[in-house]
């Protein structure tokens, strides 16, 4: 019997699940070819050109492995980390030869050290307090070799100014995705609703998966200060459009590059 489009999947208690777990398949499908092609000029300049091939690299907040795949293809010894078990499951299917861990960025505990850490797609905006953001930076610092490079991007206030409260829709033959965002300028919290309908094989039934994810907007000065307090130096901030991100992805996005002390 078909249980209708309103059935959702909840396999774990809320306090043990990532907000992306229920919509991991939607994330993997909708953003497979969106971030990486647009961001490649920035990543080439700020990361790939600075890190020697063969280096041990951590892809922090790797999601379902879109950027991880590119890092591995370039000959790096890459490890992926994300707090979503659902996204890591998809990443392992795509990249069975890569080592992945399910860990929160604020509580990193990984074997060995890395020559570089990369964190993309405004992932660190999902950390909702400055204290936790600084804790994540401290974990990255502990994970780096002396002199190691940390590159990441975050959305600043401008990125959240286009607050239309309207659904964007992606329709495929076997799925339909809906995304809607809103931003509270007082709390600096952005909330994104994601709904994904997937057609069950060989049936007319559609299953609904739903999730809500939050981000926080931080002033650039706060981010830089938090990096410095955790030990990073040679900190550089670069607007995405200044390093070749010309699509809408570059609107309000800033890249940060910093080094651990040698």
Describe the structure.
This protein is α/β, with parallel strands linked by helices and 262 residues long. It folds into two domains: 24-158 and 217-259, Vaccinia Virus protein VP39 (Rossmann fold), CATH 3.40.50.150; 160-216, S-adenosyl-L-methionine-dependent methyltransferases (N-terminal domain of TfIIb), CATH 2.20.25. 24% of the residues lie in helices and 32% in strands. The protein has six helices and eleven strands. A seven-stranded mixed beta sheet has the order 3-2-1-4-5-11-10, with helices on both faces. Strand 1, helix 3 and strand 2 form a beta-alpha-beta unit. Helix 5 packs across helix 6 (220-229). The chain is globular and about 60 Å long. The N and C termini lie far apart (63 Å). Residues 1-16 have low confidence and may be disordered.
Contiguous runs where pLDDT drops below 50 for at least 5 residues = 1-16
- The level 1 CATH classification of the largest domain is Alpha Beta
Q: What's the architecture of the largest domain, going by CATH?
A: 3-Layer(aba) Sandwich
List how many beta strands DSSP finds: 11
Number of domains: 2
